[in-house]
Design a protein that fits this description.
This protein is α+β, with helices and mostly antiparallel strands. Helices cover 24% and strands 24% of the residues. The strands form seven sheets. Strands 17, 20, 23, 24, 25, 26 and 27 form a seven-stranded mixed beta sheet that branches. Strands 1-8-6-3 form a four-stranded antiparallel beta sheet, with no helix packed on it. β12 and β13 form a beta hairpin. It binds oxidized coenzyme A (CAO). The site of oxidized coenzyme A (CAO) has 20 residues, from α11, β21, α12 and β24.
Length: 576
């Protein structure tokens, strides 16, 4: 027989009218007791609210953005026919009055788990020891932001127990002993310092590994003591846990233990830059080996959701791209020095702001293109004296209609003509093949408040200068408003980066892979040009052509740029 129970928000201490920022279950889901249902966030912290009962979710009563307090109904679960796992069923059966067991005093999920009757110390035999916060350097009164284990868990020496956060960095505090957790002494939001008790564990029979003898404390002792538990609880195996059983069931030699103080000293991640994600998402990311700093959050306040992590992994697998090495991570696949780690605050006042989503995405692409494509830049100049006179005359004529011709539109037209003459510039490398394109879609870099984007003009060869001018300004406006659709940024054959409206005399534009060349345009200026008998002032436009030297030779690039320069100097040649 089935009965329906309302699962309500338990006593969550000071959290009142807190916002739901994630709903972690949906109708039809089987939930177990203690499984997180929603994540809520106050202006100070976030927490997950667990279910007090196992069962099947019949209805979800809250949605993202709702404000909730103690007593708000979160879901209705149906019990009886529930398809919850045996373990869940046992948990539920052992906890008929589970609402009363809901975490009091804003107890976090892990602390709630601590009260779960299913979570009993596994084996006897060892002694009970208290694990406390080790020397964490200057950091005192640091806040516990995650509890990574619960009562009943088997932990390895070095396995992370809690995450703490100072005003400069966050770090995970590892266990100094292997054993089974019998009590948790902290809860989310607690402030801890060196010596604060974290939890109690029952050691696995005497040969626990301590700080004093990290190597001598035979790694086999840890693995032999609990291979079964390790196998049963893979999700609890922290990535950093050195004793994770290998395929053959043998434990590897634990790596040298790093002092937690080191983590604080090294961490150069200001608090504001910490990835915004709930504990379960952090755990999920850890299990997949994903560095959350590289993931863009799509949730409220840019919070990273489980789906963001999933999408990130999918993208990485699809592109085969190695994730960009974040600050502090050595190499990134190249045999180069790690990024310098500097505590800028030591030298003066600082303010850290997260990179925009566009910057993160374009940055990763630019980085890949810069390191994977052998770039060479050919610099030339075009005499646009006549072209500029024509442009101004046209704009005067069209003053009433408001239609404005830009230099960029003329350049696009000329570039298309040059691409037709030099087809290897309108191509892409595909393994050992060079794919020649018989269409002419031209991208142009647009500067937006959030960063650089490259809208693409399709079939530029079929459009006139006026139409190109109109389309570039429309696309640039969409780009600035962040309203470009993905399709408006795809399919480009060649890109133009025009800084002419801003300044500069030349630069090295980075090729927009899989294209093989890009034209950088700087600001035109009058210069004395020798006409054979005298110097005369001419309006000269700097052209910087970066090309992929695997595909294009220097001579071809010089010819392309010279041809382009000739077209811009005498636009009538385009008709030839
Ligand atoms: N030389 C001199 N003046 C130029 C010029 C050039 N090469 N190009 C443009 N100008 C002038 C324009 O004529 C215009 O002046 P008027 O208003 O008097 O006519 C003024 O500069 C502003 O032009 P603009 O830059 O707004 O317009 P545009 O069509 O030339 O460019 C766009 C449009 C979208 C390319 C531009 O706004 C932009 O975003 N540029 C930055 C691109 C960028 O960031 N590239 C770097 C990528 S690599 O990091």
């Amino acid at each position: 027989m089935s009965n329906i129970t309302e699962i309500k928000v338990p006593d969550i201490g000071d959290f009142d009218e807190v916002e739901v920022i994630e709903v972690l279950v949906s109708e039809g889901d089987a939930v177990s007791a203690e499984q997180s249902l929603i994540t809520v966030e106050s202006d100070k912290a976030s927490m997950e609210i667990p279910s007090s009962q196992a069962g099947i979710v019949k209805s979800v009563k809250v949605k993202v953005g709702d404000k909730i307090s103690e007593g708000t109904v979160i879901i209705e679960v149906e019990q009886g026919d529930a398809k919850a796992s045996d373990k869940d069923a046992e948990t539920a059966a052992a906890a008929p009055e589970t609402e009363k067991q809901a975490p009091a005093d804003a107890a976090p999920p892990a602390a709630a788990g601590a009260e779960s009757p299913a979570a009993k110390p596994a084996e006897a035999g060892g002694e009970t020891v208290t694990i406390s916060v080790p020397d964490i350097g200057d950091a005192t009164d640091v806040e516990v932001i995650e509890i990574l284990v619960k009562v009943g868990d088997s932990v390895n020496a070095e396995q992370s127990l809690i995450t703490v956060e100072s005003d400069k960095a966050s770090m995970e505090v590892p266990s100094s002993q292997a054993g089974v957790v019998t009590a948790i002494k902290v809860k989310l939001g607690d402030k801890v310092s060196e010596g604060s008790d974290i939890l109690e564990i029952k050691t696995s029979g005497g040969s626990a590994q301590g700080d004093a003898k990290p190597e001598a404390a035979a790694p086999a002792a840890a693995s032999e003591a609990q291979p079964q538990e390790a196998a049963e609880q893979p999700a609890r195996q922290d990535n950093s846990a050195p004793q994770a059983a290998s395929a053959g069931g043998l434990a590897s030699v634990p790596p040298e233990r790093h002092s937690p103080t080191e983590a604080f000293a090294e961490a150069d991640v200001p608090l504001r830059n910490l990835p915004h994600a709930s504990p379960s998402v952090r755990k999920f990311a850890r299990e997949l080996g994903v560095d959350l700093k590289l993931v863009t959050g799509s949730g409220a306040k840019n919070r990273i959701t489980q789906d963001d992590v999933r999408q990130y992994v999918k993208r990485s697998l699809a592109t085969g791209a190695a994730p960009a090495a974040p600050a502090g991570v050595a190499g990134g696949g190249l045999n180069v020095l790690g990024w310098p780690k500097v505590d800028f605050a030591k030298f003066g006042e600082i303010e850290a702001r997260p990179l925009s989503r566009i910057k993160k995405i374009s940055g990763a692409n630019l980085h890949r293109n810069w390191v994977m494509i052998p770039h060479v830049t050919n610099n030339d100049q075009a005499d646009i004296t006549e072209l500029e006179a024509l442009r101004q005359a046209l704009n005067k004529e069209n003053q009433k209609s408001g239609a404005k011709v830009t230099m960029l539109a003329f350049i696009i037209k000329a570039v298309v003509a040059a691409l037709k003459k030099f087809p290897e510039f309108n191509a892409s490398l595909d393994g050992d093949n060079l794919v020649y394109k018989h269409y002419y879609h031209i991208g142009f870099a647009a500067d937006t408040p959030n960063g650089l984007v490259v809208p693409v003009i399709r079939d530029a060869d079929k459009k006139g200068v006026m139409e190109l001018a109109k389309e570039t300004s429309e696309l640039a406006a969409l780009a600035r408003d962040g309203k470009l659709s993905p399709s408006q940024m795809q399919g480009g054959c060649f890109s133009i980066s025009s800084l002419g409206g801003i300044g500069g005399t030349s630069f090295t534009p980075i090729i927009n892979a899989p294209e093989v060349a890009i034209l950088g345009v700087s600001r035109s200026a009058h210069a004395p040009v020798w006409n054979g008998t005298a110097f005369e002032p001419r309006l000269m436009l700097p052209l910087s052509l970066s090309y992929d030297h695997r595909v294009i030779d220097g001579a071809a690039a010089a010819r392309f740029n010279a041809y382009l320069s000739g077209l811009l100097a005498d636009f009538r040649r385009i008709a030839l």
